[in-house]
Amino acid sequence: MPVSAATSAAGATASAPRLALEGVAFRYGDREVLRGASLAVAPGEIVGLLGPNGAGKSTLFAILAGLLPPAAGTFRLDGRAIPAGARALRAASGIVFQAPGLDGKLSAEENLAMAARLHRVPRAAARERIPRLLEAAGLAGRTREPVERLSGGMRRRVELARALVHRPAILVMDEPTTGLDAAAFRAFWAEIEALRRAEGLTVILTTHQPDEAERCDRLAVLAGGVVVACDTPAALRARVPGDVVVVEADDPEAIAAEIEARLGLPARVRDDGVHVEKEQAHTLVPRIVEAFPAGRLRAVSLRRPTLADAYLAITGASLDEGKEAA
Q: Do 218 and 96 sit in the same domain of this protein?
């Protein structure tokens, strides 16, 4: 039987994590994608797997979704040891994939009804639950339209409702808001937060978007197939010393080299310009402006560290790096 989000499985202790993984490993041929990743997620917690393509987060998602068997690792659900890919974990989980998975020719109501049958939800429970889920998703009045006629944000909320039709204890999502506009992003996350408050839903998601990562209670920072840090967004940002000066110029590599040579400070070239991190960084802005002749710099600005800065400080890599999804 699926485990309700509102209650722990029989025999679980109050202090046990909802889900705990230890030493999870996986290879694609000769390439080691996960190298002993470990993570514990508490009931009702939202934990993000943060990293660029190639860090191992999508492979870990596939293992949690039951799509890939790990080469090694132990799993515990509500304090009880379970085999990797066990039916108990699949039954306790709702999955939202990055790629669209709805049948566009069917209505939202029909997509949820099909999912309910696959999860063996009793018919009476499905008849009661499906309209409530679609109403919560803001789809009242459009539940019988073919899904292909709905907006991208609406379709994404249907995917979420479908994942919840069997009342899972854990919601596992892969880059859930990729491609959504700002309004759809806010609506999607408002629904997640409401579910967490109402039912104690535990959420695990992969993301490389700092805005989405900020919504998490904790972030597991993945690099090279290992969880190298796991903490709150604020605690991870605090690992960046001081503030960040961003220098915009036509030749950022040359500017970065000159800042290091003239001011003796490390400078990194990022997508939005040259980044220089320093405590009391406001005192650095006039020094940088004075170090270059007029016309060399387009703009110099100061801002607080972001999670992208924190990821770079912790791992030495950018969230934008990584060519192969893993």
A: yes
C-alpha dihedral, 95 to 99 to 101 to 102, nearest 10°? 120
Cα 143 to Cα 68, 148, 157: the distances in Å are 33, 12, 12
What is the distance in angstroms between the CA of the first residue and the CA of the last residue of the chain? Answer: 31
Token readout for 314 is 């912790």
Query: What CATH number is given to the structural domain containing 52?
Result: 3.40.50.300
Whose CA is closest to 206, among 194, 192, 227, 220?
220
Strands 226-231 and 268-270: unpaired
140 with 269, same domain: the answer is no
Helices 152-163 and 182-199: crossing angle, nearest 10°? 20
Q: What is the CATH number of the domain that holds 271?
A: 3.30.70
Sheet of 93-96, strands arranged across? 93-96, 170-174, 202-207, 46-50, 218-223, 226-231
Helices (H), 138-181: 152-163
The amino acid at residue 61 is: F
- Say if CB 216 and CB 57 are below 8 A apart: no
Quote the CA–CA distance of 289 and 274 in Å, as a whole number.
Answer: 13
Q: Are residues 205 and 225 in the same domain?
A: yes
Number of CB atoms found within 10 A of residue 158's CB: 25
pLDDT in tens, 47-101: 999 988 888 999 999 999 989 999 999 999 999 999 877 788 888 999 999 888 8
- Residue-range definition of the domain harbouring residue 97: 19-232
- The answer to the question of residue 312 being in a domain is no
> How far is 88 from 72, CA to CA, in rounded Å?
19
Token pair belonging to 127: 């008849």
64 vs 47: CA distance, rounded Å: 13
Whether 226 and 248 map to the same domain: the answer is no
The count of structural domains within the chain is 2
Question: Would you say the pTM of this structure is higher than 0.85?
Answer: no
